[in-house]
Each structure stands twice: as structure tokens, then as C-alpha cells.
Amino acid sequence: MVLEQLIAITEKEKKARKEICIRCCMAAGCMSSRGAEIKESIEKAVSEKGLQNRIEVRRVGCMGSCGQGPMVGIEPAGLLYQHVTPENAASIVEGLSGGSAEAELGDPKHPFFSRQKLIVCANSGRIDPERIEDSIEAGGYLTLQHVVSELQPSQVIDAVLKSGLRGRGGAGYPTGLKWGTVAKSPGTRKFVVCNGDEGDPGAFMDRSVLESDPHRVLEGMAIAGYAVGADQAFIYVRAEYPLAVSRLQTAIRQAKHHGLLGNGIFESTFNFNVELRIGAGAFVCGEETALMASIEGRRGQPHPRPPFPAESGLWGFPTLINNVETYANIVPIVKKGPDWFASLGTEKSKGTKVFSLTGKVRNNGLIEVPIGITIREIVEDLGGGAPDGAKVKAVQTGGPSGGCIPVEHFDTPVDYESLVGLGSIMGSGGMVVMDEHTNMVDVARFYMQFCMEESCGKCIPCRAGTVQMYELLTKIVERRGTRNDLEQLEELCDLVKHTSLCGLGQTAPNPVLSTLRYFRNEYLELLNKEVQESGSSGVQEQKT
Amino acid sequence: MAKTLTINGQHVSAEDDQTLLEAALDAGIKIPTLCRLEGLSEVGACRLCLVEIAGSAKLQPACVTKVVEGMEVQTDTERLRKYRLMILELLFAERNHICAVCVANGHCELQTLAQQHGMSHVRFSYLYPQADVDASHDRFVIDHNRCILCTRCVRVCDEIEGAHTWDVMGRGTNSRVITDLNEPWGDSQTCTSCGKCVQVCPTGALFEKGKSVAEMAKRREFLPYLTLMRQQPR
Asked: Domain of B116?
């Protein structure tokens, strides 16, 4: 592949475009609501009416408003149909040829869409994720060509560093710094790893990105490989994402076929091979050291850091591990320049962040917003508040490692530092909205159950501590708890947080700590008054 | 180049690539450990050897933390003692540890540590899990009721004996050490019946058949011997 061929494909694709494009969402959410049948029935209607020359029916990725799905979009008219069924899908074609469409019209000007800033998801819902030509037409692999043929690796790292991009997996480590460390670590080989083991309850950002625009991630990884000097990469995706896995496989095959991955990319000396690794369902494998153990074929368990993967990762070689969304940000940064990227967001957190907005909120789905937007804007303007007139009470960010942010703090800008200040974390992007009917102790118990079941069992505080915390929370939820139980729960939170081996354990108490911080009264109301008043301690004292 | 650091206010010298734990031991400062055994690889799993290091917000496991020039370390603060006691209590509550009827009574590292940390009772509720005993092997028994998942057996079998009969299956508190692919120990094709796992086990989880209460003293002399003999000549 050379630049001319890339341009030729783009030209050919542009020529093949038709007057009208019907975009049918075929990401996992809409697919499970019969998205494939909808596309078929639209295609059938188009051919029945003999409109094949005017209308193109395109499979696309996620359009964002998953709660209103299945979605169908019409270009260039800018129409958006929601809750489409295979039965009324044909009427959409009717609507285009003078008749009336029965399908429900959505509002593309709603703040849910208009307040978003699309960088990572720019192609999502627009291009066919299973055709590399679509991706190339949208500018795909041009940046890789530019990087490989015109930039030095250090220039790429400088650009990423200057952009202020921070790891989108949750911890927010400066990406450029990580790349620099891997590039400078001595090693005869180096590896690039993409962490797609998204496991937080209520989070589906990485899945959507992989299902909607896999080539963007591959291109970002290849640029990373060029920058740090790696020739081999692994994408680790969980087996629960079969569509993402199959689209990635297709994308890798197509990119290899076109010489965009493999050896001698763009006729340079740069080699870059990508392999897929499928997780077996353990949440802890999203932790980087456990993920690497799993890639190597060992039991997915974390090991103490240092050594960090940047010095000693896969098979002891320096390894760069970034999240899916981080890699998806690379192409725009290199293409439009670090200054453009750094102009978005807040002082310390740049760019945009993709969130999956779920729970007790009217418009749920996938959103990409500039960092620094307030929680209130996300929940009330984009999300439209809680359904059925209920009042929103809190938002849980960061999954089982994060915390609940109460409505009093909704004017806080969303960035890495301020969320930590509130006792939560940015996390990978899950945002679960809770309304006044939600019992926060029960929420804490749910997350604790998750952590207990997903603990790998290696270190004692996490393995045995989460079980005890879960038992105490159950006791409190069932109104059997006492003040002593609450005290013991807090002691255990302190222990597990400060003594666990990996991030999973260290952050497992966060949902409890944050609900205790903001909703302590809900815990106190559930305590068993009788036991307290009779003076019994309620603590089991057992001799060994 | 040697390094100098301070442990509990005492100046200590250490070799370049030593861990904090090794440096402390050389200086006669004892830090409690449970998963560690000299001669096996470090896993940093039991968290008993966590220490406070000036300038570091996080507690660090002494067994895997390398010494740094000028480091100021505290190994025995009130906070650390509290955490250690809680970790031990969590272990006692997790499985069914009944010292009075245990073959390793009086020879058990878990029991000794509990005594050293002044554990008079367990404040957490006992989980009383249903745990099996596998006595299918001719000479040895594994009693999962007493296993603390330190993985010493897994490591000695893999690293010293080279058989890798033992491994861990399951997640969280449901983890179990297993032989081969979770087959009865007696049916194992890989087990060489060397008994190393039994000797390194810190509790009475692994023991020799025919031993009664308090009779299972462990003999670990082989480990430093083998480690020494297998070292590359310098």
C-alpha cells in the first residue's frame, strides 16, 4: 500500500456514494432489538421500489442513543428514526419516496446530540465498521502513512505528550509519558497491548468503539507501535463481546490484506502485527499485570508493581498498555495537532471522554462530551433527568472502583481530579444514574458483591475482606445490622483499601466509602434499633 | 554498591539488590510473613509484611520492595499491627481452622503469628465454608479447611521439584489449590510424591498420613540446601 492507493480507494468510494444514505445501527444494542431484520426489510423495500440507484442502505455502528434504539438515520436529510421495528422499517423508504413514514421520528437537535463533542466517536454511526474502504474514505490510515513516512518516533511521542492526553482506562496517567518510558526502556523486543477488557457494570464505551470503528483503534495502535519501537501488538477483548471480537477480526484481516498491518507498512521498514486475545470472563484481567499474565497463557492474577509493564511487561519485555479509547484518540491528535486537542477540556484533563449513561435516566446511551462539562449538564441536559418525574439522587461513576456522587455536587466539572476529590473516580466511563427510589446501601452491596465475586483470590485482604464486607452490608440491608457492624464495615474498608495488592482490591471499598460519606443517614436508618437499645454488642465473639 | 537505610530508626546497610525484608532480617529486625518462604519466588500475596516508607503514601510489601539509598522504613507501627491482626482474623474466619484438633497444632505458622499478634478471638463472622479433604494419595493428605492459599505448595512443586502438580482454580474466596486438572491427588500423573509441598505448607492443610494432633512438625531443611546447591557457582 502506498499513499496513491489510499487516495484511489477514497476516490472510488466517493464515486460509489448514492444520493441518499440510510444508516442502520448494527451495534450490539440495536442488533439485539432485531437491528439486522430492520436493515433487511429496508433493503427489501428499496429494491421493491427500484430505488437501488438512489438509495444506499448502510450498516453502521453505534449512534449513541441506545435507549431509543433501534436507530435508523437518513442522510443528507438529517432525519433520525428511533424505536424502529422490522414491521415499520419499510415505511421509512416510503417516506423518502413521497409517502409517509410510520416509524417514530427522533430529534437530532436534542441536547443529547448537540451537546456532544465527537472525536473518538466521530465515525461511529457513520461508517460501515466491516468495510475498510469506508474507514479509508473517512480518512483512515492517512495519519499512519504520514507518521511512518514523515515523522520520527520521538516527534509522535512529543505530540501525544503535548496534547495532554491521559489514560482513558480510568487512572488518567499521562499517555505521552507512558509512551516515552516504553520507548526509552531497553529491550530487544517491545509490545503494544490494547486493553479492551471492559468489565464495569453499566459500561459499554470500549465495546461501542470496537464495534463501530475498529480501524481507528488499529491505526492508533500502529502509531503507538511506531513511536515506542514495537512490532507486535495484542488486543485483549472479553469474550462477552462477540460482535466486537468478530468486527476486530474482520478489521485486522482487511488491514493485513491491504498491507496496512504486517511487514513493511507503507513501504517502510516498520513492521506491526496485531493479534487478538479473548478474555475468559474475569474482571481482574482488566488490571494490566493480570491482563499480561492472561495473554501469556497464565492464570489471570495481578502481581506487585514495580516492575511496571513499561519496563518489564509481556515475557519480561517493555510493554505499552493503553485502553481502547486512548488509542482511538491518537489519530485525531496527530492529524489535527496537539494544540487543538489541548484546547479542549480543563487545565489538567484534556480532550473529550466517552461515557455510557445508564440507570434511572430518560436518554441513556453512549455520549462523548468535552472533559470539564458538569455532571448536571450530562444528567439533566443530555440525559433528560430521571424518567416518570422522579428526582435524581446520585450518579455512580467509575464502576465498582468508583463512588456515588450526590446531587448536591452535580455542578462539579467532570475531570480526573475533581471526581477523585468527591470520593469517586473518572473510571473508564460508566455513569449510572440513581433516583430517589434507589437504596444506596443496596447499591453499595451490589458493587461489593461484584468485587467479592471478581476478586482473584490472591491477596488476603481483598479475597476475605470483601466477603466480610458483603456479609455486613447484607446484614444492614436486611435490618439486622448494628452500630458495631457499621464500625467494623468502616474498619474493613480502611484495611482493604490500604493493604490490597492490586487496584481492584484497593478501590473495592470505594462504593461503600462514598455512600457512607454522602448517604450515611440511609445506613443509620437501616440499623436494627432493638439490638442497639438492649445494649447487646451484636458482634460475634468466637474462640479459635 | 551497598546501600544505607533506616529501619525503625536504626541505621541498616544492605546489598544493592536486596529487598527490604532481606535487609531487615540481616539487621535482626523481624517482619511477619506468611506466603514467603526463602528459596521460593515472592508473590506478595499475604500482605503481612507491609511496611510504611517515608514519602510514600502507599504501604509497600517488604518482600518485593527493593532497598533504596536513604529510605526511611517503619515496620512495626500501631497501624501496621492493627492491619496485620485484621488480616490474620480474616484468615481464621475464612476457612475452618480449629487448632485443638489440628495435626499442625504447635507447629503452625498461622497459629504462631496469631499468638504473636495477641489474637484472643476473631471479631469477624466465621464463614464456615464446606471444604473437602483429599486423602487419596498414599502418603499425604490435603485438608482444604486449613488452607490459606499462600501457594507455597504450588511454587515449590513448580520451581523446586519441577512437577507443577499443584495450581489454583476458582476465584476469590472460592479459590482452591488443586492437583493436576482438579483430579484426586492419588490419581495424579505428575506428582512425584516427593512431599516438598507438605513440608513447606505453613499450616496443617498438607500433612503426612499417620500423624495425629500436634504431630505434624514440618522439615524444611531441604529448601535452603537445594537452593544453595543449585546456585550458579560465583
From this structure: 104-230
Mean of pLDDT values over A46-66: 94
**Residues of chain A with C-beta less than 8 angstroms from the C-beta of B172:** 452-457, 463, 466-467
Residues of chain A with CATH 3.40.50.11540: 155-342
What is the topology classification, in CATH, of domain A3-106? Answer: Glutaredoxin (3.40.30)
Which residue of chain B comes nearest to A306, CA vs CA?
A: B65
Tell me, yes or no, whether B40 and B108 share the same domain.
no
Level-2 CATH architecture, domain A358-437: Roll (3.10)
Q: How many domains does chain B have?
A: 2
All residues of chain B having their beta carbon less than 8 Å from the beta carbon of residue A294 are none
Instruction: For A450, name the nearest residue in chain B, comparing CA atoms only.
Output: B172
The DSSP bridge pattern shows strands B176-179 and B166-169 to be antiparallel
| Torsion A143-A149-A150-A154 (CA) sign | positive
What is the pLDDT averaged over residues A323-328? 97
Q: Residue A53 has which C-alpha cell?
A: 440507484
Q: Which CATH class is domain A155-342?
A: alpha beta
Residues in B touching A303 (Cβ below 8 Å)? 43-44
pTM of the model: 0.94
Q: Number of Cβ pairs closer than 8 Å across A and B?
A: 108
What pLDDT does A4 receive?
94
Q: Please name the member of A299, A464, A495 whose beta carbon is closest to the beta carbon of B93.
A: A464
Question: How many CA atoms, within 13 angstroms, populate the side-chain half-sphere of residue A83?
Answer: 8
CATH class of A441-533: mainly alpha
| Average pLDDT for chain B | 96
Contacts of A541 in chain B (CB under 8 A): 121-123
ipTM score of the complex? 0.96
**DSSP-derived secondary structure letter, A391:** P
pLDDT band at A531 (very low <50, low <70, confident <90, very high): low
Residue B149 grid coordinates: 492459599
**Spatial distance between the Cα atoms of A195 and A375, rounded to a whole number of angstroms:** 26
- Give the residue-averaged pLDDT of B57-73: 96
